[in-house]
Design brief:
single chain; alpha/beta; Nucleotidyltransferase, domain 5; six-stranded mixed β-sheet; 21 strands; about 50% helix; globular
Amino acid sequence: MVYRAHFAMIRNPLKTSDGRYTSALFGFINSMFKLLRNEDPDYLAIVFDGKEKTFRHEMYPEYKATREKMPDELRSQLADLWKLTDAMNLPRMEAERYEADDVIGTLAIQAKEAGIEVNIVSGDKDFMQLVDDSIFVFVPGRKNDPDTVFDWENVMKKWKVPPEKIIDFLTLIGDSSDNVPGVDGVGPKNAVDLLNEYGNLETIFQHAKEVRNKRVRKGLANGLEMARMAKKLVTIITDVPLSTSVNQLERKSFDFGAMEKIFRDLEFFRLQSQLDSFKKVNNQKESTTQVDKKYECIDSLEKLLKMIDELQSADLISLDIESTSTEPMLAEIVGLSFSIANDEGWYIPIEFPGKEASLFTKSDNDLEGVLHSLKPILEDGSLPKCGQNIKYDMLILKNYGIDVQGVIFDTMIAAHLLKPEARSYKLDYISQEYLSYRMQPITELIGRGKDQLSMTQVPLEKVTQYAAEDADIVLQLTPVLKKKLENAQLSRFFEQVEIPLIPVLAQMEQNGVYVDTQLMSEMSLWMEKKLDVFSREIYAIAGTEFNLNSPQQLAVILFDKLKLQTVRKRSTDVNVLEFLKNQHPLPGKVLEYRKFQKLKSTYVDAIPKLIHPKTGRIHSSFNQTIAATGRLSSSNPNFQNIPIRAEEGREIRKAFQPQNKGWRLFSADYSQIELRIMAHLSGDETLRAALKKGEDIHVHTASNIYGVPIDAVLPEMRRTAKVVNFGVMYGAGPFRMPQELGIPLEEGKKIIKTYFARYSGIKQFIEKTLEEAREEKFVQTMLGRKRYCYDINDPNQRVRSAAERAAINMPIQGTAAEMIKLAMIEIHRRLQTENFKAKKILQIHDELLFEVPENEIDRIRDLVVHEMENAMQLDVPVVVEWGVGDSWYDAH
């Protein structure tokens, strides 16, 4: 089960934020919880192989010789596995000179003799030999597959022989995983036929000369001695001397306190709810100290005014909104919660089941009255405020005409800065990690799936406890996380960059962008026709029609019909097709087809569906807690991923236009900013000199690499130099770079060697960065944002290389992200204070996009270019390129 859990997530392994592998542990515990919950066994033991060799190795030195050693990623998890099994009070057994199978077999027979029904939980076919009326093999299902219980009939159905003949069956066919030799020429079908005809192994060998199949007859004639030994190897021993008897394996309850501590350490927050359910079943007391929570429902005007009076004198106000949607531009307020003291909180209900009359006003509009009363406090910048993803709350309030001021802390952003590699920053996870406090899950209120309720349908008493707890926990987390940021030397960055950016992003999200749906519709039809053309061309090349969207059918064409080189178990992903396109024209055409199909489905068809019904614009969300480098990302839609290298991708930008007549789009884009930051950080004089002269840096690099004058650089040379320039910044080494360039390995190595000879400062910077990363286990940007690289000394070369690439790139890309964030903050301030009508509507990597009245274009150009070029001071010039147009396509 441990191995199975590890390899189930081998492509996307689970890790803690400090880099420890946890896939096997997570999968094992999840499986154990499911087993305990569904089967509720009275007796339970888990059995492992010992470290030493067994009697089978003494009998046959080649036994299991072909097995690979335990992966280091799995071995590193064993210490925590023992802690977990101890905390679960699971008897852990092994026996010297015997395998786990033998211990399990012995326990199974003992339990059977004691009148206990036995389930052996394993997918190992060897255990089928033990199945009888009292012993069963229980194979846990994978994902949505059901569990399978093998009784006598199911063994017969699966293997075509009964359990009592499984040993002879395994002897005949052998076992490649254990390196147990079978009889030459005998496969599963032959073995079944032989056993059905002759009954057992010895009789089969006695009648070997009568066997009609020549290969099988020859194998039997020469294989008797080896078969007798193989039979001993595959036979499970059922009388292993054990110090523990079945009666001592009665199931015990968990040590919940120990398990919760381990779960926090391993960041198993998603498993906590399952652990809690076991705690309830076992009638255990909560492991954390119970605190008397004082959460009050504000259900009258008198209570509201008293609360507002207390808010006005608070040192810090924690704010949280309950709403009808996770999309802030569509959300309606269900209620508001506040907290100004630990373990206390208020909830102001607006909508709830059974509401018959207004609580706060004589009219029917409670929300208007409540917001009118709260507006002076929310807009008072001298009253400090905090929240969890407070941008969401700010944007909802912004839609109701309230501009929240005085935000000084966001727990989600703080948690992200402290652990940029964490998988989630949900409030209940952060609470468990930093306060050891388990919050009420939202699913307990509204349920899941198709039966999920709206917050307006949840009883008021329950919502009050849930909502007030959110505000309370944020208030308690704020000083804890603030101290953590100080200790990590991240406070200044948090306070000067990330917090001031929140209102900037909220405004940008509210602004949204306008899209010409008619143009998008026309583009969709054009792409549909283009896809039909691609399909016909592909069918003509393949010589047959097939489902282009089926990887299996495409694999048949590529590897069976066209006989192309099989790569990664008949994979047809983009990397494989890129590799194969030089061998045959079909893979290249399929890549073109997929590119168009993705453009059409992901952008051209999907974007118009996101238009807001009231504003007629698209309001993307800009996220500060996704990218570990600190880059902003966007979602619904992801504007960052709209492709611009291909003309078809750029065409999509034609649909992004000003909504009002007499307005234009203004685009400002940093020119080669990452190369300029590299020049600053590395101090490389050659690169700095070229940038100060204003030279085309890719032409300059090509001139250096190829040893030709600048005016002799060919376009192909520049393209290669561009790949090398950016490849170096993204940590691409001597093996990766030639692949990207499509050149032989040796030629690639030569280019990189020449590059570093010319730009020795860059080489020294990379070496110094990696050296410091190995020592400190983190790298940082110019302003001090950190990215941890715990994998940088990993024994696995693939894992280590990925960590090295990230370590090289992060200081550069992260600093570029900081530069544009600082520019955005200052531009936002000036747009407000100088009363511009212009609106900032998008941020995409190094570009800012504005919707601007015609008469403000010149002022906006001067303002934006100045603030972007002066956001951070570098030792080389910072250049901003800009453009104006009637669409994003024209402006960029």
